[in-house]
Amino acid sequence: MEAIIRPSSDLRNHYSEISKECHENRTPVIITVNGRGDTAVLGLQDYYQMKSELELLRALAEAEEDVINDRVAPIQDTFNDIRNSLLERRTDEV
User: What is the rounded average pLDDT for all residues in the chain?
Assistant: First the structure.
C-alpha cells in the first residue's frame, strides 16, 4: 500500500479529501512540514488493526523467546493450573 504525501496545509484546507482517501481506499497519508515527513494519517479501523497486529507479534516474540530459553511446561500442567485457579475463584465467591 503506497502512502500519499500531502503538505500540512492540505490537512487544514482539504481534510475531507484526506479522510475519504484514508477510509475508502484504506491508504495512509503522510503529512509534510517544510517538505519533510511529519505525521501519518490513517483510518481508525486501520489504526486498530495495526495496533492489534503489533500486540500479537509482540506476544509471539515473547512466546518464541520462552521456547528458546526452555521456559515451557507441558500443556496438561497449564490446563490444570488454569482449572485450579478458576475453581479457587468459584469457592472464594461462595
Answer: 94
